[in-house]
What does this fold into?
Amino acid sequence: MNRNEPLEQAMLSALLIKPALLPDVTAVLQPEMFSSPIGGWIYGAILQVYDRGEVPDYLMVENELRRLDCHRMEETGGIGWLGNALVQVQYGDNALQYALEIRRLYILRQLTACFKKLTGKASMDDGDPLAIMGEADDCLLQIRQKGRCGANVQPFSELAADAIAKHRSNRTKGRGHMCNVGPARV
It folds into this structure.
């Protein structure tokens, strides 16, 4: 068992207890963010049941897991993977807090992988610092995008270029001042 499994099991159990929190949880958490492939698979099954307009409960999710991959279902124990969390978690209101923590740990795992890769490249004598910094920017942007669950994240350089273009456009249209400077007149 990896160290994040109890948290992931508690989140899934809480979500099954209080499925009304699914919209909030899905806004911050994707199946690939689970450190346990089984946890991500179960979460994916919960999402599929929910996406069909049904309320996910233990039986619905168990049936969905069987439908998705009967062999894997038998091999992993399916919903039984949640183990003691099914009994210990009796209050579903913490599902969102658990989901936020799962996402935070996912982002940290992604950062660790990115920096390990970059450290190896940076330790080479023939490494190209600018290329490595560019790769670092790309890696961090990908992590930001994944961590925001699909919300578009625009690189700072693009935001700056857009702001400059808008300012130049306003100047050519005679609206050169973006704000008034000096005391307000009444």
User: Anything to note?
Assistant: The longest helix spans residues 95-122. The chain has a mean pLDDT of 85. The radius of gyration is 23 Å. The chain has nine helices and no strands.
